[in-house]
Amino acid sequence: MHIKIAHGFQLHIYGFGSTAESKDYAGTAFKLSGKMWEVVKTRSIKNKGMNIWVYEPGDKVFAGVELENPDVRLINGLEEKKVYLDKYAYCKHIGPYHLIKRVGQNMIKELARQGIEVMLPYVEIYGHWTSDENELETELLMHVK
């Protein structure tokens, strides 16, 4: 696992947020993504095509997408989320989605071993879909002190 420490990440996305019921973060984010894509596709909102999940304090989850040119008339009803990470740990996972949780846990362990404290928000950026699950790309960004 290659973890890089970087500075100054900004994200401006639109979608939906909610509290994860029974701490089912992935399940909640998946439902929110479905709701977001339904709105984006129905309104033909131009976007960058990648799911972005943001995990926040208080068991909050946000699922969104970056838009090409946000048009106020089209985005009505979507929630806006701005994320800024002054310092963060970055890792790219290539492989099946079901391994992302384990990769994230391993990141946290490795960062702790290095004396680096992880805090929220935590961001997952899902690359473009491919039917070969071994080629799926997911970027993991953990806010660190």
Please outline the major beta sheet.
6 strands, antiparallel, barrel
In the predicted model, the low-confidence regions spanning at least 5 consecutive residues are none
Strand content: 35-45%
Assign the CATH superfamily: Regulatory factor, effector binding domain
Tell me the overall shape: globular
Q: What is the averaged pLDDT score?
A: 95
Order of helices and strands: EHEEHEHEE
What is the total domain count?
Answer: 1
Fill in the CATH topology: Multidrug-efflux Transporter 1 Regulator Bmrr, Chain A
Strand order of the largest sheet: 1-3-2-5-6-4
Supply the CATH architecture: Alpha-Beta Barrel
Derived from helix and strand composition plus strand pairing, the structural class reads alpha+beta
Helix content: 10-25%
CATH class: Alpha Beta
* Total beta strands: 6
Distance between the termini: 20 Å
Number of helices: 3
Determine Rg (CA atoms, Å).
Answer: 15 Å
How is this structure best described in words?
Strand 2 (52-56) and strand 3 (60-65) form a beta hairpin. This protein has a single domain (4-144), classed as Multidrug-efflux Transporter 1 Regulator Bmrr, Chain A (Alpha-Beta Barrel). The protein has a 6-stranded antiparallel β-barrel. It is of the alpha+beta class and 145 residues long. The model has no long low-confidence stretch (mean pLDDT 95). The protein contains 3 helices and 6 strands. It is globular.
